[in-house]
Predict the structure.
Amino acid sequence: MVRLIDLDNTREMLELLALQTAAYKKEAELVGLADIPPLLQSPQSVRDSGEIYYGCFMEEGLAGAVSLKQEQPSLLAAPLGPVRLHICRLMVQPGLFRRGIASTLLRHVLQLANAEGLDTAVLAVSTNAPAMALYGRFGFQTIRQHPAIGGLTLNEMVAKSAVQAAPAEKDGSL
């Protein structure tokens, strides 16, 4: 079952931070980087992030989570880009890999984005083969690559919304 995580609920926050620590330690090993920012977060920094967290709950508790933020185009950027739903984190308990949890969360995110007519964006480390394969299966395409710390490359990936905005009706009004 996927539902919002209550960041003000101490039990849910501690469960989320334990999941995040376990998942990102595994990713840090996978990509060869020791200190990645999610390993350094506190409950307050999670709350202050402005991200919305959804969790995939199973009998074992919190099996996986995804955090989202709606990306507003910068007024300083030219040209203004489209507003997107940005996946900030997608994490699964390492002992529960390959059980469809990440796919369940990703389907939920894409349904939310499609309901609003938003494209979905994510940054993925190019050497994280499982993540790259997962996003590829869901139609994400790399639109840019960015150099990152430790000689890594981040792929900026986007999945287009399945919902196309309807053209405005012409009724003579402005």
